[in-house]
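Lab notebook, design round three. We kept the backbone fixed and only want residue identities now. Task for the bench partner: fill in a sequence for the structure below.
Input structure tokens:
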């Protein structure tokens, strides 16, 4: 095959040369130049380069493989997948975010595309006497245990953790301004508080294992620093503090900021070396057992003058998690909330094995935390925030029914900013300026337009939740329970989630 390709290329080059000889105009010279470049490229592929065996066997032609491979995600998304089979978030779900954020028509014609008789199909049953959704209550929840002196009145839907570094400055500004306009909270992610977070929106200040914005580097090790932490935690925009143990996409690993995205500005905020890959440690240096952890949580609570303190984790070893909650109850000291991240959670960068095979999925993790808090008498004091690919109102209602008090959304709000799920977050080449530090791409994201879309998506989703709850004949969102959610099981029987999980 190599000889055949080389022969064809040479013949084309010779024919172009003959054409120029008899018709020496500019167009034919350009044609000859292209043919000559093709010939030299074929010779290079076949005889000079030794890195790619495929190119040596199929000069020039093999290069098409890399072109198609580079564009595979886009080809898949635009020409192959249907409305329901796309991953991580299918087109139907992406479309509802776009429609709600732009306040466009969000109804669908001609009936559902879902298989209502397939295993795993879930739904709620409506009432003969539905309520007026304008009168449905429960869209806000007060976070704060009896240990907390500055309780926070939170929306049931908030922006989940995404750092400046993972996201662009324009994306962070749009999210925070949208949160301000919609009166909901914006989690900073573990990268610290940047100027772009300080647009007036309520903040959940996340403190990860790298202690960015809450610590410093001593002899190459990141350590918690009380003064640095308090400087950020006492900002009026900060309403809650979240101590991150792990995230669903890479539990037990620690965060990853690719070197390309670690600009001088981001490195200054994080107090690290610019243009180097930044790996957060997998564990906290400030504590190593439950007693030390509880003492650390109390220290953090004292340093921020009693603001709500929480922990974020992806459920791993069940015995370990129960031992932690038991320790909270034993010493009568506990966090104000637990943010449960599912293994299906997203991230800008993670090892494949951690994303695919480590951590408990959200539903099982959420139910386990809910059960353990009830078992040890702490459920009334500790709120649960659930995060795991919630997009539409049914997702929200379902997670609330399974035990969540509040829902955290990350990728959904990225979509409201215009994310097209290009899946280039770790390459610094996000084409819509959401998950990149490339100045040209970042500039394409217009904050004054996207901030309104962030607010719209939040508000319209809350409205949709109220409509679903009203159709069920329920007056208050918090009254939704596992008795109200139904699933078709493997025996083709319809059962409640209460029967399935409780």
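Proposed sequence:
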């Amino acid at each position: 095959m190599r000889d055949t390709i080389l022969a064809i290329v040479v013949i084309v080059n010779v024919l172009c040369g003959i054409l120029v000889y008899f018709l020496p105009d500019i167009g034919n010279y350009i044609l000859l130049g292209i043919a000559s470049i093709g010939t030299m490229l074929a010779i290079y592929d076949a005889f000079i380069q030794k890195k790619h065996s495929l190119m040596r066997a199929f000069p020039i032609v093999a290069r098409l493989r890399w072109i198609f491979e580079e564009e595979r995600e886009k080809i898949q998304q635009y020409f192959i997948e249907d409305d329901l089979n796309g991953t991580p978030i299918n087109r139907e779900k992406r479309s509802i975010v776009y429609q709600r954020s732009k306040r466009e028509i969000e109804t669908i014609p001609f009936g559902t595309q879902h298989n209502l008789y397939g295993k795993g199909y879930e739904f709620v049953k409506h009432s003969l006497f539905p309520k007026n959704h304008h009168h449905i209550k429960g869209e806000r929840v007060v976070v704060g245990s009896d240990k907390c002196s500055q309780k926070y009145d939170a929306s049931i839907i908030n922006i989940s953790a995404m750092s400046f570094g993972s996201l662009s400055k324009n994306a962070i500004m749009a999210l925070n301004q949208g949160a301000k306009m919609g009166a909901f909270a914006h989690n900073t992610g573990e990268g610290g508080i940047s100027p772009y977070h300080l647009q007036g929106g309520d903040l959940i200040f996340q403190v990860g294992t790298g202690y960015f914005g809450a610590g410093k580097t001593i002899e190459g090790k990141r350590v918690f620093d009380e003064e640095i932490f308090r400087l950020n935690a006492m900002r009026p925009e900060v309403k809650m503090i979240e101590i991150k143990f792990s995230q669903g996409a890479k539990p037990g690993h620690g965060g990853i900021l690719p070197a390309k995205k670690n600009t001088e500005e981001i490195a200054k905020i994080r107090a690290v070396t610019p243009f180097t890959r930044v790996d957060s440690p997998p564990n906290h240096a400030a504590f190593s057992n439950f007693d030390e952890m509880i003492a650390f949580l109390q220290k953090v609570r004292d340093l921020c003058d009693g603001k709500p303190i929480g922990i974020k984790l992806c459920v791993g070893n069940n015995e370990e998690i129960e031992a932690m909650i038991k320790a909270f109850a034993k010493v009568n000291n506990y966090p104000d909330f637990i943010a449960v991240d599912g293994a299906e959670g997203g991230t800008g960068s993670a090892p494949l094995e951690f994303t695919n095979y480590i951590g408990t999925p959200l539903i099982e993790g959420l139910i386990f935390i809910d059960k353990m808090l009830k078992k040890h008498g702490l459920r009334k004091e500790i709120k649960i925030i659930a995060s795991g690919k919630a997009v539409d109102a049914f997702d929200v209602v379902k997670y609330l029914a399974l035990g969540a008090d509040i829902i955290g959304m990350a990728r959904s709000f990225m979509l409201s900013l215009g994310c097209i799920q290009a899946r280039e977050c770790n390459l610094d080449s996000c084409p819509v300026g959401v998950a990149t530090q490339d100045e040209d791409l970042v500039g394409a994201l217009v904050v004054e337009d996207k901030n309104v879309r962030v607010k719209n998506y939040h508000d319209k989703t809350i409205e949709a939740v109220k409509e679903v709850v009203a159709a069920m004949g329920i007056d208050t969102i918090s009254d939704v329970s596992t008795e109200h959610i139904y699933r078709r099981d493997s025996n083709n029987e319809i059962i409640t989630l209460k029967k399935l999980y409780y």
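Keep this in mind before ordering anything: DSSP finds 18 helices and 17 strands in the chain.
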